[in-house]
Amino acid sequence: MSTQVNQTQNNEDNISKKRKIIVNRPKVSKLSNLEVKLHQMYIQSELFEPNEYEPHLKTIETLIAEKLLIIDDNELENYNTCTVDFTLFVTVEKARSILLIFQQRAKLGLACLKYQIHKFYAEMYQAEKELNIADIEELKPIDVRLVKHKPFCSFSEIKSSFIHRLVTIKGTVIRASSIKPLVIQMAFDCGKCKGTQVVHFLDGKYNYPTKCATKGCGAKSFEPNRTSYQTITVDSQSLKIQENTNDNSNDLGRVPRTVDCEVSNSLVDRVTPGDMVVCTGLVKANQASGGKFAQKSANTIYTVYLDLVNISKASGSKEGDDDSGNRDADQNSKESIKFSDKDLKFVNALYSEPNLFKLIVNSFCPKIFGHELVKAGVLLSLFGGRRRNTLKRGDISIRGDSHVLIVGDPGLGKSQILMAAKNLAPRGVYVCGTSGVSSSGLTVTLSKEAGSNDFALEAGALVLGDQGTCCIDEFDKMTHEHSSLLEAMEQQSISIAKGGIVCTLPARTSIVAAANPTGGHYNKAKTVSENLKMNSALLSRFDLVFILLDKPNQVRDHYLSKHIMQMHSGRAFDQSDPNRTINEEVPEFESNGSDLYLRLHRKPGEKMDLVPGQMLRKYIAYAKAHCHPYLSPKAGIVLKEFYLELRKKHQSIDSTPITTRQLESLIRLAEARAKMELRETVTEADAQDVVELLKHSLFDTYEDEVGNLDFSRSQNGTGMSKRETVKRFLHKLNDLADEYQNKVFSLEKLKKIAEDLNLKFPTGFRDFVEGLNNQGYLLKKGTKSYELSFGSVE
Predict the structure, then answer these.
(1) What strands, in cross-sheet order, belong to the sheet with 469-473?
(2) pLDDT at position 571, please?
(3) Same domain, 672 and 778
(4) Can you give the CATH number for the domain in which 174 is found?
(5) Which residue among 44, 282, 362, 574 is least crowded, i.e. fewest CB within 10 A of its CB?
(6) Based on the domain organization, do 220 and 164 belong to the same domain?
(7) Among 279-283, 562-566, 709-713, where is mean pLDDT lowest?
(8) Is this structure's pTM higher than 0.85?
(9) 137 lies in the same domain as 161
(10) Beta strands in 734-774 (DSSP E)
(11) Residue 71 shares a structural domain with residue 125
(12) DSSP 8-class letter at 411
């Protein structure tokens, strides 16, 4: 690193001498006026020697003449840009020298390309338009976009040895600055003779003229002429790209690496935070700004960044990444998985399995014993429903992603299921509520740029998981951040209005969350909302809510302990062994009468070749990309009848009504069930499976403390079997507040009122008051005082 920096420093010390030699070099008589102009624009501005660039100029001129290097006239005329396929320099023998120079001095190769392409276009433009050479010389510098450059470079390889080389990386945009004007060429007027002198700014570094070039003047006072046609300004934007660690298990537990990138001209405003992109650029070094090295060692400490010559959104097509440079290409997909012929053969073989649903469920997180229905629900959220087109203005946003909440006692494998879901998701993000997660860390952060007061957007977990899955563990520990999830879970977007920036970012993310009940153990006398102390508006957005209870069961505990002992001895779930069996008969202690559970559970002695996690991840990505099922009439009837049955059971006054949100959840889950088997039509059997899965979820939600199903209680309502207790209590408080003109009651006063009404509380009076506080009827004021907010329960 020190050798490279010293070389850079020596080059900067000699820059003025070298510039003087090049400027005073006698012009070759063979050069036309156009070539002289192009030399000043591309060659002399970069301080290259003739023996460095002349051979490469001839090679590129030959490639253009033989039509090996194809130039798009329309692209040059409309965008002032030319797209060059980099595979030309790899496959064509004549172009191998250009490939070598890009591997060593990419700036020189890029300058030669710009020179010859600009020359070809200018001569052709002059012949067609019949313009004189003066008009041609006023053409702005062109940009060259290099596409299909391979191979990809790892973020860890971009060090000082890669400076001046051309690299291609793939990552996720986590930060995007505002667009700013960047001056690349400035005209200066002499303060004495009023002569004009043009100075090119290398790598955005401001360079003031040393003295006037007019003969006999030699003045050193200049005034920048910002309105001159020779002053060239382009758009510029700064990006920060973060590496993807999903494919590399060695990167677990390490902070992901990031690389700063600079884009200009037509490349600005092409990506937003959260996009997965492929970037091709020149590795450059810049002096570090800020920090402890800002003054003492400003000339020796450098930072590496990429000056991009192309950036495109990555796709999951078979051919690889969408790096064609086509501005009209479909940029909606953010899947980063590529499918080889071997992968497609595996997908076809897996599709032919007779009982695919059972195989996929048992292949998901095999280290966790049981919980087949919970695994099925999480898998349905990974596959997701059919995405509705919401890009048109005025369309109503209908989400196609399902959200799943797993609530249960500690030690039941909730975190393991979430980690398995994150690893299987083609685009997965995992966060934990106990590690200091903030609302801005989940959504979007506005940060000030270094050296200016402008704001830049930094993507949070939900934006980074766009078109993927965001797994949130310890969901109950982040109560202050729950409100920031409401918009993202339903509208699938995140709106921000801060610091003068008003924008909306996509967050089409499926959320899989796990939470522990308050007190350490789930209380069946309370509802899910009361056990978690969670807002009912947030709970209603989850399509499936599973409750895992640690009930003592002698048979279940026997098989569970045996499974754990085998797993730690290395004899359980060896995926390389296709003949592993379950010799003992496992009782159906989790079925709750569910036929779906019996079909998903592995039978005694049943052989099953589980699908490896990496291949299952590719299968999920293939299904999400190529399968878009529609609801059949028979499946629609099954879902409609079940929805109407739920509406009928919840039409009493004491219950929270079932809304169309539950019907949309049924449709999404049914579409995901069909997508799991790569079918384009949702069958009646798919609808029946989803109905059984939702019944299992509702069974846990509506079961009370004595094991009875009470449909008057909902996951969002109170834990009492009847809400008359709440009504009587609040009506009495309302009467007392009107009588004494005071809405604040102490805890002792509330308890005295309950005793006067002869009210009974199965879970205790404090839990009763906390439940009213969570639902907004009583607002806590101080430690032992509450203010009445609502007078009654309708």
Answers:
(1) 428-432, 469-473, 510-515, 404-408, 544-548
(2) 54
(3) no
(4) 2.40.50.140
(5) 574
(6) yes
(7) 709-713
(8) no
(9) no
(10) 744-746
(11) yes
(12) T
